[in-house]
Amino acid sequence: MNFQGKLERIVKNNNSLLCVGLDSDLERVTGKYKKLKHPQFEFNRWIIDQTHDLVCAYKPNSAFYEAEGLKGTLALKFTCHYLKKNYPQIPIILDAKRGDIGSSNKGYVKFAFDFLGVDAITLHPYLGRESLTPFLELKDKGLFILCHTSNLGANELQDLNVIPGGKAAPESLFDSGRARYSLARMTDKIPLYRYVAKRVAEEWNRNGNCMLVVGATYPKELKEIRKITGERTILIPGIGAQGGDVEKTVKAGLNSKKKGIIVNSSRGIIFSENPRTEAKKLRNKINFYRI
Fold first, then answer.
1. How much is the pLDDT for 163?
2. What single string gives the DSSP state of each residue in 189-203?
3. Full strand arrangement of the beta sheet holding 210-214
4. CA 86, 50, 123, 1 torsion: positive or negative?
5. CB-based contacts of 203: which residues, under 8 Å, 6+ apart?
């Protein structure tokens, strides 16, 4: 079963658009797990067992495991293996934000899909479609392309106006004293994030498995991107610790079938006093605004 089919089945079975991000920062993993041989994995296993019937996906962030070297890489491998063995119906999205020249991407493909066995991965578009060919050739895997991210500084580049066709809109000279750009007077320029959305939707998505990442902290941009991408699924981080608004996010992101979004929460769930309670609360809140 391809990623989209797997996702649609679990969304229906669990009545959920919630993704739990396994951002298991070892510095925040405390208590009995800290004393175990593989604390990140044991912590993840507990979170998964607490929430598996409330989610549509899990999203481990590779950075928190790579930071711990070999032990962290093993914890990530064990986590993916545990999910595939015990909850094979739940998709795994590796949050790795890969994107390099083609030969390097072949290595990332092997690590994500052969070694870890995940169902999807996050990618960045900066090097263009050609560089992502090793990923784009995988018809059964989910590919989430960064479009408008959730961080405060996202607009530094993602909101820059460009001329469709690959050329950046010419700007006036940089004013080093005031650190500002003045916009050129052009009628055919669009924000870079919209250009990325259009390229992915119209040119890159030949196998029907290219999706987008749009932060919950930018609901206006999310609404615009939904119009561009049609019915395709959008991965939405930024709910919880980053302050994204659930109502605005759901209403802006849903497709015509009242689906089409994966709403991720990481720290707000896994480091709460009761992860199951928090996951259930957020799952139900998302569903409330789907009506």
1. 84
2. -EEHHHHHHHHIIII
3. 57-60, 18-22, 261-265, 234-236, 210-214, 142-148, 120-123, 93-98
4. positive
5. 129
Positions in the chain short of pLDDT 50 = 167-186
Q: What SS3 state is found at 150?
A: coil
Cα 276 to Cα 263: distance, rounded to the nearest angstrom = 16
Q: CB under 8 Å to 248, separation ≥6 — which residues? A: 216, 219
* Tokens describing residue 193: 């994030």
Characterize 179-210 residue by residue with b for buried, 16 or more Cβ atoms within 10 angstroms of its Cβ, and e for exposed: eeeeeeeeeebbbbbbbbbebbbeebbeeebb
In tens, the pLDDT along 105-135 reads: 999 999 999 999 999 999 999 999 999 999 9
Whether 218 contacts 244, CB under 8 Å: no
**Cβ atoms of 120 and 143 closer than 8 Å:** yes
At residue 49, the pLDDT reads: 98
Report the alpha-carbon distance of residue 52 to residue 178 in Å, rounded: 51
Which residues are catalytic, by number? 97
- Rounded distance, CA 58 to CA 228, Å? 26
| Single-letter amino acid, residue 151 | N
Distance (Å, whole) CA 250 – CA 175: 39
Task: State pLDDT tens for residues 176-215.
Answer: 433 333 344 445 789 999 999 999 999 999 999 999 999 9
Query: Which pLDDT does position 187 carry in this prediction?
Result: 53
Domains within the chain, CATH numbers bracketed: 3-158+199-288 (3.20.20.70)
- The answer to whether 64 and 102 have CB atoms below 8 angstroms apart is no
Structure tokens at 182: 């003045």
Rg from Cα positions in the chain = 19
In this structure, which amino acid lies at residue 274? Answer: N
